[in-house]
Amino acid sequence: MVFDDFQKHCSMCEKGKPCGKYHLYVLTIDPRLKVGKTSKKNRFRQVNPTTHEEGEGLYVGKCECAPKCRQSKHRTYNPKKETLWTCYCGKYKSSNLYKKYRDNPTSIHNFLKGEYGFLKPKLFKKLNPFETSAEAIEAEAKLAISLRENGYAVWAGDHDDKLTD
User: Fold this and answer.
1) Residue 128 DSSP one-character state
2) How far apart are CA 6 and CA 69, in angstroms?
3) 124: closest CA among 56, 71, 60, 79?
4) What's 148's DSSP letter?
5) What share of the chain is helix, strand, coil (3-state, %, to 5)?
6) Could you read off the pLDDT of 7-16 as tens digits, one per residue?
7) Cα separation, 157 vs 165, whole angstroms
């Protein structure tokens, strides 16, 4: 069954018709990211000093497609082989080869797979959509801060990658 419930992630999108603007999204992440000694796990704890142990793990990002499309990119990405992701909104052809220059994998992509990497629209729908990428980037950082203040352990895509490099 093809996904067409774009209105679940954005107040301006309609069933079968995405609004074509920028969106924020929130995904669940594997709690194993919160423990251990790898550099990714250390970086996660660095940006979540008070919530990394107890708070539910979330990933916050922004996208130019519908959040469901970006979820497909995250969940199918494999750096060791060519993979296809699905564009549900029609911005790109329906099945796409993952391209690093365009699709920009997150440093924690391995923690968005399996039983994780699912959208949490209650945490982002009311904020969408955004006219520009810059507006969405600013809102992404603010949403991550707000979620951390509410007890979540959050990785905020490019924003946190830059903070911990």
Assistant:
1) -
2) 10
3) 60
4) H
5) 40, 15, 45
6) 999 999 999 9
7) 12
**What's the pLDDT tens digit per position in 27-77?**
999 888 877 777 778 888 888 888 777 889 999 999 999 999 989 888 888
Token output for 70: 């970006």
Q: 12, 4, 26: which is closest to 139 by C-alpha? A: 26
**Type of residue found at 73:** K
pLDDT per position as a tens digit, 110-134: 788 888 899 999 999 999 999 999 9
> In this structure, what token pair is assigned to residue 140?
């992404």
Tokens standing for 97? 């080869």
Q: What is the mean pLDDT of residues 1-5?
A: 73
Report the half-sphere exposure of 42 (CA within 13 A, side-chain side): 5
Listed residue (107, 106, 104) closest to 39, CA to CA: 107
